[in-house]
Amino acid sequence: MVIVMRNTATEEHIADIQERLGEYHLRGHLVRGEERTIIGVVGATIPLTLREEMEHFPGVDHTLRITRPYKLASREFRTESSVVDVRGIKVGGGACVVIAGPCSVESEEQIMQTARAVREAGATMLRGGAFKPRTSPYAFRGLGEIGLQLMAQARAETGLPIVTEVMTPADVDMVARYADVLQVGARNMQNYQLLEEVGRTGMPVLLKRGMAATIEEWLLSAEYIMNQDNPNVILCERGIRTYETATRNTMDINAIAVAKRLSHLPVIADPSHGTGKWYLVPPISLAALAAGADGLIIEAHPDPDRAVSDGGQSLTLENFATLMPRLRAIAEATDRTMATPLEVAVAV
Ligand code: PEP
Ligand code: MN
Predict the structure, then answer these.
(1) What is the pTM of this model?
(2) Which end of the chain is more exposed for a tag (fewer CB within 10 A), N or C?
(3) Using a 6 Å cutoff on CB, does residue 213 contact ligand 1?
(4) How many A from CA of 273 to the centre of ligand 1?
(5) What pLDDT does 46 receive?
(6) Per DSSP, which regions of the chain are E strands?
(7) CATH fold of 2-64, please?
């Protein structure tokens, strides 16, 4: 349920409502929008009479029932699109962000070279995995904390905020000390303890869609994070598993537009995992932006043939630089701009 406050509502009115909700063991999620303040009430057992009761509270304009199973993530809850702020870079505000970097952090030289090149080409954030979910236990599983330190070093020099995956609740605090955006991978989309733990940090979270998840399940996973009072969720479509074998996954372009319609959260696309082929990354990047994605996360590597993971879907640094102006053309054709990198280096 959503309680929409009048323009004239005071802090005291809001506090009275919160207190009453507390008596029902419910929590109100307060959202101060440009026009109105609203209180989202979520919980397994909302009394049937609560709506009527709330309509009579001072300061309340009206109440609405949210019909979708996800509440805080739904556009019924918030009609305005949300903007997630990552160290001053706005995701979802009409400027398309490009997050680029290797699948895995491999060495100082590799991450520094990549960071400098993608920054130069206009990327707004740096990606790189230090904890890698690998299908085979014998594959390279990441440098761990050393990889995070190398990412922080790249951020210090280039100013690019860093996006990196956290795989287990036990590592959240440590990864959060380095990351600007915590990535929850496709394989962990339904790891509910991890979702709650990243939710508790209050930090921006990049939530990948599970490879066999419906859009509703994906949004319910976002709800787990948001229910920890963390509104900073960025959804990421990364392809789903289908019968098709010509590509690694089937990039669900539909899902971008559907998620934007059902949810107010920013949605970005990952054409690298979505296709599994470097030569498909440019066309599918363009398609994803044209479909309304608020940005892209793209794997790029100085020497994809020698990459320890996902080389076959990684762009060379040259191909990445060639793609950027083409993305700008699509952003402008859809009445948006490209986000610009932060001007100054960020202190670690
Ligand atoms: C990745 O970003 O390198 C990754 C493992 O992605 P996904 O979780 O989408 O497979
Ligand atoms: Mn990868």
Answers:
(1) 0.96
(2) C
(3) no
(4) 7
(5) 86
(6) 2-5, 27-32, 37-42, 60-64, 84-86, 89-91, 95-101, 125-127, 162-165, 181-184, 205-208, 233-237, 267-269, 295-299, 337-338
(7) Alpha-Beta Plaits (3.30.70)
